[in-house]
Fold this sequence. Notes:
With 370 residues, the chain is of the alpha/beta class. It has a single domain, classed as Aldolase class I (TIM Barrel), CATH 3.20.20. The chain contains 12 helices and 13 strands. The longest helix is centred in the middle third of the chain and has 18 residues, at 193-210.
Amino acid sequence: MYRLVRALLFQFSPERAHRLGMLGLRLLGAWPALCRRLRTRALPAGAVDLSVEVAGLRFAHPLALAAGLDKDAEAVDGLFACGFSAVEIGTVTPRPQPGNPRPRLFRLPEHQALINRMGFNNHGAAVAAAHLQARAWHPAPLGVNLGKNKDTPLEQAVEDYVACVDTLAPLGDYVVVNASSPNTPGLRKLQEPEQLTALLRAVKARLERVAPGKPLFLKIAPDLTPEAVDEVVDVALACGLSGLIATNTTVARPFAHPLASEAGGLSGAPVREPANAVIRRAWQRSRGTLPIIGVGGVFTAEDVYEKLRAGASVVQVYTGFIYEGPGMVRRRVRELEALLARHGVRSVREVVGAAHATPGNEDARRPLGV
């Protein structure tokens, strides 16, 4: 069914198709009984225990929605109806901003990829907060992904993140600092150790004041060198973060394509292995003590399995959902159950970090967050 819908949607520009898709999800969210019924159908059948606990949050299965699809928290209930174990909204900035000039979103179906340079287009923290306050259904964890306004100088970035924490942190189940988008000039400089330490300490201190105990994650880029990943992990551990989200979009273009010269972040299948490499490095650097939410190039159950073995406890999707539609979660959950059963795995928690286990190093199999 979605193949027909997608064929129709893909006749429109990517951004207009996105707006139409979001409209459909908002309309779905207006039917609570239907949302609950659809969500129940998408949850695990129970053949394998797919539940995961990370930072005190319970995920019914490892497949969650990444930030970027619902920037203003306007279709959260419709997205939960699709079966996601968690939904992350944003990136949200303190003040509304239009984002970068159009066109700014491009499809590369031959590569199962997208290029975007949206630039944190959103209606601001107050609007997102109003949408969240109006919700009555809370079936699973909700994350709020925070950024800075484009016109805020980098030396004042902390103020923007702290302002977002004040407005949104009490309304979400976990908070994410996005310091890795390639579409806000200079933002990735915040991943440098000195600036990152100052930012994370300020955000964590404010978070403890307005929402004590709420988990705080950092979203990082796939373009970091292995040594830079080590530095980020060290800072995250020193600042007492709950975990990392690895990774954001990449500025690399590992293929030839007429659209490859377009500026922006590349997502989808080409990011799969760079993201997995960052996940593996972060797991190794922290010795499995820092929970990781993996994202990048997830289309199949095997893609989920790879990220779990690399060290991710939860796996987010974005581009795969756009290409495969609302039924994706249900299909991947069933396929993941079958895949793990074939491997003789009784619980998904047994898989996390298993790729690092070697004889005499069985501690590498210890699950994260449990």
